[in-house]
Automatic annotation (TrEMBL):
It comes from Hanseniaspora osmophila. It is found in: Membrane. It comes from the Eukaryota. GO terms for biological process: phosphatidylinositol biosynthetic process. The lineage of its organism: Eukaryota, Fungi, Dikarya, Ascomycota, Saccharomycotina. Keywords: Lipid biosynthesis, Lipid metabolism, Magnesium, Membrane, Metal-binding, Phospholipid biosynthesis, Phospholipid metabolism, Transferase, Transmembrane, Transmembrane helix. Its EC number is 2.7.8.11. This is CDP-diacylglycerol--inositol 3-phosphatidyltransferase. Its cofactor is Mn(2+); Mg(2+). It is a multi-pass membrane protein. The chain crosses the membrane at residues 156-173, 179-196.
Length: 225
């Protein structure tokens, strides 16, 4: 072959290729397990725990697969976060029904914490992608030490998220007399990690609000020049 012959062009990545990335397939699997758990929650706590646990374990795998196969994508990042938030929100919806008569004061607390979870993560991702040069919401400046610790260290992120999900699962178990002891013990064990997660939610929502307001102020001042 002549040295002047141009090298063949690499195959162009299509949107369909991105949807078929291994970590994104894992994300789709998480959606399926979430939907399945919805039909099991009311009467089958054992099966629900298994299915919900599989979804949480898959959440720990998709990021690893994305890095291993160089298949990181914005779609994957959004799918991961949406799957996380949707799965937790669906469980909280059930808990609100389960405790509506048994503990009415718990219901608005769960609703508020669910709103905080959804709002803080949406604002955090939106603000990071639109107001900074970062392409991932997990890159946090060191000045925000708690968020930096939470997002930069995978062991911390995994542990805190595990405690957060287990806390809600413990409330779920506690609603069944057969599993009430397991639920109570798990609630006590997971409480510190759960509190840490709620504090992180408040801090990241405040950070996102400041990023967005700062950008708005900068844009408004630029228009006046």
């Amino acid at each position: 072959m002549s040295s002047n012959t141009p090298a063949p062009k690499a195959k162009q990545v299509t949107p369909t290729d991105v949807l078929r990335y291994i970590p994104n397939k894992i994300g789709f699997s998480r959606v399926i397990t979430m939907v399945l758990s919805l039909f099991l929650m009311r009467s089958h706590p054992t099966y629900t725990t298994i299915v919900y646990g599989i979804s949480c374990l898959l959440d720990a795998v998709d990021g690893t697969m994305a890095r291993k196969y160089d298949q990181c994508s914005l779609f994957g990042a959004v799918l991961d976060m949406v799957s996380d938030r949707s799965t937790t929100a669906c469980l909280i919806c059930y808990l609100c029904c389960a405790y509506f008569d048994r503990c009415p004061l718990l219901v608005p607390v769960l609703q508020l914490l669910n709103a905080l979870d959804l709002s803080s993560h949406y604002m955090h991702m939106y603000a990071t992608l639109n107001c900074t040069k970062e392409t991932t919401h997990k890159k946090i400046e060191k000045e925000q030490w708690l968020l930096n610790l939470y997002y930069s260290r995978r062991d911390v992120l995994f542990t805190v998220c595990a405690f957060n999900e287990l806390f809600y699962l413990a409330l779920y178990w506690y609603s069944f007399p057969k599993y009430s002891t397991l639920g109570l013990v798990t609630l006590i064990i997971c409480l510190p990690g759960y509190i840490f997660k709620q504090i992180a939610n408040v801090i990241q929502m405040n950070r996102a609000a400041m990023l967005l307001a700062t950008k708005d102020a900068k844009d408004a001042n630029a228009k006046r020049l």
